UniProtKB/TrEMBL annotation:
Belongs to the hyi family. Gene3D superfamilies: Divalent-metal-dependent TIM barrel enzymes. SUPFAM superfamilies: Xylose isomerase-like. Its EC number is 5.3.1.22. GO terms for biological process: glyoxylate metabolic process. PANTHER family: HYDROXYPYRUVATE ISOMERASE-RELATED, ISOMERASE. Catalyzes the reversible isomerization between hydroxypyruvate and 2-hydroxy-3-oxopropanoate (also termed tartronate semialdehyde). It holds the Pfam family AP_endonuc_2. Keywords: Isomerase. The active site is at residues 147, 243. GO terms for molecular function: hydroxypyruvate isomerase activity. This is Putative hydroxypyruvate isomerase.
Length: 263
């Protein structure tokens, strides 16, 4: 069983300043699918046309989060969350994208994660909002995802177990785990066992090398050829997003991808 990869248009192909040009660049590099943040600064029709013209699938998109990295967990901003979700849905539907990472938001800069009352309040807000989002996205044919993130100070969801606990509390069939192996390796490691354990919750995977978040073959903590074999053995048939920062020109660093390209 082969693994398959989606090119990230937010982290890679930055040699093309115009976002819409990256669709064609990804196609020319061998990708059949892409992922990205929600490109709200570009008219939705223009983005949709670029994807169609390049003949690639958009298989994943981040929700519109503004400068606060999302709203799902922020108390007293529920209506704003719903409005931002609708913006994200507009782009996802135009791009025929079946998955959305709904971003959780940032804790206040002065917040203390050991403050149980504060964290409980944010969790209650998140669960309520994600129950709504999971149902709303299901109506649109889009899977809702949660991703633990370790590189954004103050981000609400930081560990894989926290994400799984939230999935259980939201308790909706349309809410799954997005596992970025870079983030998990930084906080927990033990990727082989983790992949086995999270498979029932897993909706999407992303990869990059640790510690510098560059190409999977750059030389680092993760043996990706082995990990990709394990992913295939476990029966995961979904896309794997290549969310990394290239060491140089994107196309020059795609040697890792070539063994996995299929006609």
């Amino acid at each position: 069983m082969a693994v398959k990869f989606s090119g990230n248009l937010t982290f890679t192909f930055l040699e093309y300043p115009n976002f819409v040009d990256r669709y064609r660049a990804a196609k020319n590099a061998g990708y059949k699918a892409v992922e990205s943040s929600c490109p709200v600064d570009i008219p939705v029709e223009e983005v949709a046309k670029a994807r169609r013209d390049a003949d690639v699938q958009q298989v994943h998109i981040n929700s519109y989060g503004g400068n606060i990295r999302g709203l799902a967990a922020i108390p007293n901003r529920e209506e704003e969350f719903k409005q931002s979700l609708e913006i994200s849905i507009k782009y996802a539907k135009a791009l025929e994208c079946p998955r959305m990472h709904v971003m959780a938001g940032l804790l206040p800069s002065e917040a203390d994660r050991t403050d149980e009352e504060l964290m409980a309040q944010w969790e209650v807000t998140y669960v309520k909002n994600m129950k709504y989002a999971a149902q709303r996205l299901e109506e649109c044919g889009i899977t809702a995802l949660v991703e633990p993130i370790t590189t954004i100070p103050g981000y609400f969801v930081t560990h894989t177990q926290q994400a799984i606990d939230l999935i259980k509390k939201v308790d909706h069939r349309n809410f799954q785990l997005q596992l970025d192996l870079f983030h998990h390796q930084r906080t927990n490691g033990n990727l082989t066992q983790t992949l086995t354990d999270v498979m029932p919750y897993l909706g999407y995977i992303q990869v990059s090398q640790v510690p510098f978040r560059d190409e999977p073959d750059s030389g680092g903590e993760i043996n990706y050829p082995f990990i990709f074999q394990q992913i295939a053995k476990l029966g995961y048939t979904g896309w794997i997003g290549a969310e990394y920062s290239p060491r140089g020109r994107t196309e020059d660093g795609l040697g890792w991808l070539k063994p996995y390209l299929v006609d």
